[in-house]
Design a protein that fits this description.
The structure holds 2 protein chains of 2 kinds. Residues 98-156 of chain A have low confidence and may be disordered. In chain A, the strands form 4 sheets. Chain A has a 6-stranded antiparallel β-sheet with strand order 2-1-11-10-7-8, with no helix packed on it. In chain A, strands 13-12-21-20-17-18 form a 6-stranded antiparallel β-sheet, with no helix packed on it. Chain A has helices at residues 98-111, 117-133, 136-144, 148-155, and strands spanning 3-8, 11-17, 22-26, 33-34, 45-50, 53-58, 65-67, 70-72, 74-76, 82-85, 88-93, 160-165, 174-176, 181-186, 190-197, 200-207, 213-214, 217-218, 224-225, 230-234, 237-244. Chain A is α+β, with helices and mostly antiparallel strands. Chain B is an alpha+beta fold. Chain B has a 5-stranded antiparallel β-sheet with strand order 1-10-9-6-7. In chain B, strand 6 and strand 7 (144-147) form a beta hairpin. The longest helix of chain B is centred in the first third of the chain and has 23 residues, at 48-70. Classes of the chains: A alpha+beta, B alpha+beta. Chain A binds chain B through residues 50-53, 55, 74, 76, 78, 94-97, 100, 103, 106-107, 110-111, 145-149, 151-152, 179-183, 187, 191, 193, 195, 197-198, 204, 206-207, and chain B through 19-20, 154, 158, 163-165, 168, 170-174, 177, 213-215, 218, 221-222, 225-226, 228-229, 232, 236, 239-240, 243-245, 247.
Chain lengths: 245, 276
């Protein structure tokens, strides 16, 4: 169950379980959480809990309600959020569904890019850094957020795949493979795609009667993992794949 | 202009267990000749989820094809002013719901089973969509991906009522809580909508195993990049979901519109419209 920890000047005063749909905060005695201090309005704020999500709403209090230093009227509470009423602080600890948490963890593990074993070490320390730098409150959010955005950043590993054209009019041009998919070739004639995945780059034939050639060997319908310095040939144009970083 | 739907449309359906779940509770169905696609994401203990989603797709498919044999889907009905496809979808989903509900009631091992459902019927340059729950339909037109169904989920209701922003919804713990489903109640309330179809459109039906794991931008990029090879696009979408963790079953149906497909007006159709 989600809970709030009430504190003042760094001293924990009490722990409040969010076991009701509506929990009121205020100076008056009828509130679920009474804070007897003149800076707190009679009916100051309310916390609504629906299943595993909690929302904070300020009831037009005189001195306002802050979350992580920002004035809020209505706020969707995230794990580690700090609510401030006057001098009092309430830290929110969201409920973590056990199974969800486990798979969340697993997910982050899977997402670590490990194109080479050496790289894994680098990314681990790269990941650890911002966590240590942040306040302890933020650490929690970092760990539990199932944000696809973040994981995408993680996959933007230090090493980027690059394709350099070796023949034809565009000889010498380089193409950085930063997107999840990059197409090569001419639509309607021959097209192949390079997919960027957590464990490397893969070349697949998309359309056309001709299949791409890798290091002199014709590719079949299957995706082919690209190795550093592979030479690819599409629509008669030769290009080299390499890892930069 | 194509006379037959099978010349005007291209369809691919794929389903995958994902990386975490023990079995696949999703079910997919596609019939190119009829222009019909159905996707269901089952729920319930043991293998009941599979039973529910399997029943939903197969029952709905057979019932719809039977009903559409006698009446063309584009026939405008006098009482509602809407094409027959609408009433047909509602009736057949209600029937399917009863069948699953009764099975769940009568057999203890199936108690509490249910399924989400999203279906699309293509006819006369239109598509009619029906859905219950949080399985979605998207449309890619002019390289832009848009959602064309609204989830029946707690999260969507919270977004609609302004309780939570779509940005905050990403962090919600109340994911996958549906407000409507097939087979859990004696009644069901399917949402039906109608859209004009243009050549070049790509329609995507998917279970939440895709849209929870893969951001819309990446789905859009994949469909744009691989539109020439639908099979590969479907595989790539599933692969993306698995690369991001594959926490749920992943199902994908893709329908690409190659040509226009206006309904042929036979003498009988003209006669019927005259009589109406």
């Amino acid at each position: 169950m989600a809970k709030l920890v009430l504190s003042m000047d760094g001293l924990v005063l009490k722990e409040i379980a969010l076991n009701k749909e509506r929990i009121s905060l205020g100076r008056k005695a009828h509130n679920d959480i009474q804070i007897d201090n003149l800076a707190i309005s009679g009916e100051h704020a309310v916390i609504i809990t629906l299943l595993n999500d909690s929302f904070l709403e300020d009831l037009n209090s005189t001195n306002g309600t802050l979350v992580n230093g920002q004035v809020v009227k209505k706020h969707f509470l995230k794990n580690g959020d700090v609510i401030e009423l006057g001098k009092y602080k309430l830290k929110y600890f969201g409920e973590q569904i056990a199974q969800d948490q486990a798979s969340e963890f697993e997910k982050t593990m899977v997402l670590r890019p490990n194109i080479t074993p050496k790289l894994t070490e680098q990314t681990t320390s790269y990941n650890a850094q911002p966590r240590e730098a942040n306040s302890p409150g933020d650490t929690h959010t970092e760990q539990f957020i199932p944000a696809p955005r973040q994981t995408e950043n993680t996959t933007m590993a230090p090493k980027i795949g690059v394709v350099q054209i070796l023949s034809g009019a565009n000889t010498g041009r380089e193409l950085e493979l930063t997107k999840t998919l990059t197409t090569l070739g001419k639509p309607g004639v021959q097209v192949a795609v390079i997919a960027k995945r957590p464990h490397g780059y893969f070349l697949t034939h998309v359309e056309g009667t001709q299949y791409p050639i890798i290091n002199g060997k014709v590719l079949d319908a299957q995706a082919q993992a690209l190795q550093d310095h592979d030479v690819i040939e599409i629509t008669g144009v030769k290009m080299e794949f390499f890892l930069k970083g | 202009m194509a006379k037959r739907l099978s010349d005007a449309l291209e369809m691919v359906a794929r389903t995958d267990r994902g990386l975490v779940r023990g079995h696949n509770e999703d079910a997919v169905f596609h019939d190119l000749e009829q222009g019909l696609v159905i996707l269901a994401d089952g729920m319930g203990g043991y293998n009941a989820g599979e039973i529910a989603s399997g029943m939903a797709t197969s029952l709905l498919a057979s019932e719809l094809s039977l009903a559409l044999k006698d009446t063309p889907p584009q026939l405008i009905e006098l009482e509602t002013g809407k094409p027959f496809a609408h009433r047909c979808f509602v009736n057949k989903i209600v029937q399917t719901n009863s069948a699953i509900y009764n099975a769940a009631q009568s057999q203890p091992q199936y108690a509490g089973m249910g399924t989400t459902l999203v279906a699309a019927l293509f006819y006369n340059n239109r598509v009619t969509l029906a859905h219950v729950g949080d399985s979605r339909a998207y449309r890619l037109r002019d390289e832009v991906l848009t959602t064309i169904t609204r989830d029946h989920s707690l999260l969507q209701e919270q977004i609609d009522s302004g309780m939570i922003t779509p940005e905050e919804a990403r962090y919600s713990q109340n994911r996958s809580l549906v407000t409507r489903a097939v087979g859990i109640d004696p009644d069901v309330d399917p949402e039906i909508s109608d859209r004009t179809v243009l050549p070049g459109d790509i329609y995507l039906l998917c279970s939440d195993g895709l849209n929870d794991m893969v951001p819309d931008e990446d789905i859009q990029l994949t469909l744009n990049t691989l539109s020439a090879n639908l099979e590969l696009a479907a595989m790539q979408l599933i692969q993306l979901a698995n690369d991001n963790g594959g926490r749920d079953n992943i199902s994908v149906i893709l329908v690409k519109v190659l040509h226009e497909f206006p309904a042929t007006k036979g003498w009988w159709a003209k006669l019927i419209s005259c009589l109406k």
